[in-house]
Amino acid sequence: MLIRPAHLTDASALPAIEKSAAQLFGTADGLAWLRDAPVIGPSDHARRILNHAVWVAEAADGALAAFISTEIFDSELHIWELSVHAQWQRRGIASLLIDSAYRYAVNRGLGALTLTTFSDVPWCAPAYAKRGFAPLLQPGKRLQDTLDAEAMQGLPPERRIAMRLPVGGLIPRR
Ligand SMILES: CC(C)(COP(=O)(O)OP(=O)(O)OC[C@H]1O[C@@H](n2cnc3c(N)ncnc32)[C@H](O)[C@@H]1OP(=O)(O)O)[C@@H](O)C(=O)NCCC(=O)NCCS
């Protein structure tokens, strides 16, 4: 599996990966509707790819298996989406993509990675916590705005949290 920065020509393949990844929510209490929720469109992917903030996992046959889409806000790199195609899950690919984003943040002199996620879904907050992300009890305006926007899109606010991983320390894995 090759992890590399996304090319502009990858943008059109990413929505199908997010859609496939989302099928996993069929197993999460009360979240099965996310299998049919809207995904990030090619133009938004293209914009972030042009900002050099998207990485993909490419299989040996050239097909894309996963992506991580990020954006810099001040001194922090926010992870907007991390999706691994259903056929490729549980093989450590998400971990490799987070590593790429982390290295980028180090190289850019950023202070942290941030994200919002489900607190109680096993492959969300608990998995990020294993990698050193900590829940933010006071998320600050940017992340609170993100949480509020997600609530307006129907995500249950009582199950959503913001998390932060300071850059510069170790990335705990297990
Ligand atoms: C979350 C997701 C990106 C993980 O991708 P992945 O490549 O399968 O993850 P990894 O193999 O790197 O696993 C990392 C850790 O995540 C957790 N994890 C991943 N899939 C899991 C699952 N189905 N059930 C429980 N824990 C899971 C585990 O802690 C795992 O570590 P382990 O294998 O040592 O137990 C993938 O399941 C996915 O695309 N899900 C749908 C979209 C999504 O939920 N994105 C993140 C939203 S915040």
From TrEMBL:
Please name one Pfam family that this protein belongs to.
Answer: Acetyltransf_1
Where's the N-acetyltransferase domain? 1-168
Record-linked InterPro entries: Acyl_CoA_acyltransferase, GNAT_dom
Q: Which GO terms describe its molecular function?
A: acyltransferase activity, transferring groups other than amino-acyl groups
Q: Mind telling me which SUPFAM superfamilies this protein's record contains?
A: Acyl-CoA N-acyltransferases (Nat) (SSF55729)
Q: Does the keyword Acyltransferase apply?
A: yes
Identify the keywords attached in UniProt to this record, alphabetized. Acyltransferase, Transferase
Query: Does this UniProt record's set of keywords contain Metal-binding?
Result: no
Official protein name in the record: GNAT family N-acetyltransferase
